[in-house]
Amino acid sequence: MYYLLLIFFYPISWLPLRVLYIIADMLFIMLYYVFKYRMKVTMQNLRLSFPEKSEEDLKMIARKYYRNLCDSILETVKLFSISSSELEKRMKVNWEMFDTMTEQNRNGQAYMSHQFNWEWATVLCNWRAPRRFTGLYMPLTNKAFDRLYLKLRARSGTQLIRVQDMQKEMAQVQQQKILWGFIADQNPSDPKRVSWNDFMHRKTAFFKGPEFVARRYDNLVYFGEIIKIKRGYYEIKLKLAFDHPRNTSEGEITEAYVRHLEQSIKRQPENWVWSHRRWKHQFAH
Question: Per-residue pLDDT tens for 30-54?
Answer without folding.
Answer: 999 999 999 999 999 999 999 999 9
